[in-house]
Amino acid sequence: VNWFTFSSSPLHRCLHQHICNLERNGKLETIEAINEKVRKRFKNPKLSNSSCAKVCRHASVSWCRSLIISLALITPLQSEQSVEAQNHNASENASENAQRLLYVDLQTDEFWNSSFEDSTQLKQVETKWIPVLNKIKNTAIWKASDQNLDSANTLLRCAYNFFRESSCVTLPTWVKLYLAPKGVALEPQLKTAIDGGVEVLDVSLPRKLLLWAYTLVHGHWAHISAVLKYCEENIK
């Protein structure tokens, strides 16, 4: 059965439930595949009704949340000292990228505010993943551990696909990224962008996820133009 040739309310409820189940179970790649199918079907004007639009919106937001959750799962929660000791033999990079660290802060209160998702199903997703998301509070992004490097590369590919396919979707501001000099202790709530040499990165959410994934893969941040060039040359 081709789900997107029907417009019945029960079928759309089934689709919403299926997307929620996938998100709750961490099926990021399946959600990505559903988004690809949704985009192709939604280009058909005959299917551009409000119910289809809600499914498209739900699929896109679920893809975004699932990507953030997956990145959070492999982001090392280590102190600067322990990571530097672990990577003591790594080659030194004298560039600006080595002098400042990329920090991520998740606005978890905003993750679960949705007008087009079933509140009961969304609560189940929140219950499953909120402990993971709550750990990412002004967290320095280091290179993923050896056992998570393959996952980091997969997430970089997924983040690049999300960046390319989400240009027409309005997304919430769930993620904040900061650059700060090494050794600067970040407060839970930064009041200004210049305190302690901190720079807030004012880029779109898809670009933030790309920067996060790239840093997990390489162990240092890069300007978004360099990240995009890397993805264009290395991700097919």
Automatic annotation (TrEMBL):
Record-level Gene Ontology MF annotations: nucleosome binding
> GO CC terms for this protein?
nucleus
What compartments host this protein?
Nucleus
The protein's organism comes out as Punica granatum (Pomegranate)
**Name of this protein:** Uncharacterized protein
Record keywords, A-Z? Nucleus
State the InterPro entries in the record.
Hir3/CABIN1
Q: Which domain of life is it from?
A: Eukaryota
Report whether Nucleus shows up as a keyword of the record.
yes
Which biological process terms from the Gene Ontology are attached to this UniProt entry?
chromatin organization
Please spell out the taxonomic lineage of the organism that makes this protein: Eukaryota, Viridiplantae, Streptophyta, Embryophyta, Tracheophyta
